[in-house]
Write a structure and sequence with these properties.
142 residues
Length: 142
């Protein structure tokens, strides 16, 4: 064998080793690509499920908002109906307060009359007692 034949055999062996190495690397890449492909498929499935759930949720939220608006309009109507009642109660409260104030003034006036009457009554009783005393005294002196 010549030097050229040995070089050719070494080159052929190196080529075979390179091919084997490349086959192993390509198999690993293919396995990795299939794992990535599975991951991408799972991500797509998850996105599809989330899209359907969000669509359903949006429909339910819209229905809830419609019901809330209806309820709020109903409450506003009832508040408008009750509003005159609160105005009447406020007016009644003011009237009762005025009545209480007038009653206090009247009681104060009667209290003053009562004091005067009490003084007159005491003076009358003292005078009556004095008159009786003097009548008895005059009867005993005679």
């Amino acid at each position: 064998m010549s030097l050229g034949g040995i070089a050719a055999i070494i080159a052929a062996l190196a080529f075979v080793v390179l091919v084997i190495y490349l086959v192993k690397v390509l198999n690993q890449v293919a396995g990795t690509v299939s794992k990535v492909d599975d991951t991408v498929k799972e991500a797509n499935n998850t996105i599809d499920v989330l899209t359907k759930d969000v669509d359903l949720l949006m429909v339910q939220v819209e229905g809830l908002l419609v019901k809330s608006n209806t309820l709020l309009n109903d409450i506003n109507g009832k508040v408008e109906t009750i509003d005159p009642l609160f105005t009447a109660v406020a007016d009644l409260s003011e009237t009762v307060s005025d009545l209480n104030l007038s009653s206090r003034h009247l009681v104060d006036k009667f209290a003053d009359v009562g004091k005067t009457t009490a003084k007159a009554t005491v003076a009358g009783k003292v005078g009556s007692a004095t008159l009786k005393f003097f009548k008895k005294r005059n009867q005993t002196v005679k």
